[in-house]
Amino acid sequence: MFNNFSPNMLKTYQFCPKKFYYKYIEGINIPQSTLPFEKGKKIHALANYFLQGINISRIETALSDSEKEIWQELLNNEYFKKDTLKSEYQISCKVSDFWIGGRLDAVVHDYENYYILDYKTGSIPKNPQYDYQTMVYLLSLDRVLKSYGTLSFVYIDLKHGKNCVIGFNDKLKTDYENQIEQICHEINTDTLYKKNCTNCERCEFNGYCR
Q1: What pLDDT score was predicted for residue 209?
Q2: Of 8, 74, 126, 173, which is most buried with the most CB atoms under 10 A?
Q3: What is the b/e burial string over 129-145, where b = at least 16 CB atoms within 10 angstroms of the residue's CB?
Q4: CATH 3.90.320.10 fits 4-209, yes or no
Q5: How far apart are CA 117 and CA 152, in angstroms?
Q6: 133: closest CA among 11, 4, 3?
Q7: Helix axes 35-51, 65-75, angle to 10 degrees
Q8: How far apart are CA 83 and CA 55, in angstroms?
């Protein structure tokens, strides 16, 4: 039985309970190429140093042309320019009997308005308002801040130069808590972890599972 859940755990179970079983219960690790993620890792690390006030001038010279373009896109972003509260912020909260949490790219603010930033060098979620990352992070920061003017989640789409802004409110808070409680309960009471055959071609466990 699990007491702590990350967004990736919830997404994995939603994607395929069998994959969740292999990954989080059996602890099976299927090696994957890290090349598609290297650019994102560099930008995230650079953003963290920058927001902490560390001199990054030497690091910037080591970026490739495409990485420099993405980094400049982030520097020019209106939300990235706001005052920093936290960077690479580990956060958690309790929903019903379950603990949820994760690491936020950054939390910024202007006076009483707070924004969770998530930098994307790839694509943003298809349904960002109800993505588990959105839900877990907003619920967690809401509990930490307690009092604020507004709270929003901002997906910064560096690939297309766009922002996807999700404003938090009481209705979403209730929806998020209900959905989180439901899926955590499902995970802890599931005894079969059935395979979701519609997602097999996108799963790294496909060959192993068959």
Answers
A1: 79
A2: 74
A3: eebbbbbbbbbbbbeee
A4: yes
A5: 9
A6: 11
A7: 40
A8: 18
Q: What is the token pair recorded at 7?
A: 């967004």
Cα 142 from Cα 104, distance rounded (Å): 13
Each residue of 192-203: pLDDT tens digit? Answer: 999 998 888 888
Please tell me whether residue 88 adopts helix, strand or coil conformation: strand
Q: Residue 34 — pLDDT band, cuts 50, 70, 90?
A: low
The residue-averaged pLDDT of 13-30 equals: 93
- Cβ atoms 136, 144 nearer than 8 A: no
- Pairwise CA distance, residues 8 & 72, whole Å: 29
Q: Which amino acid is at 99?
A: W
193 token code pair: 């972890």
Count, residues in the chain: 210
Amino acid at 162: K
CA nearest neighbour of 104 among 151, 57, 36, 147: 151
- Secondary structure class of 26 (helix, strand, coil): coil
Contact 105, 88 (CB under 8 A): yes
pTM metric for this prediction: 0.94
CA–CA separation, 137 and 37 (whole Å): 22
Sign for the CA dihedral angle at 7, 155, 80, 71 comes to positive
User: Hey, is 153 helix, strand or coil?
Assistant: strand
Query: Angle, nearest 10°, between helix axes 7-15 and 170-189?
Result: 70
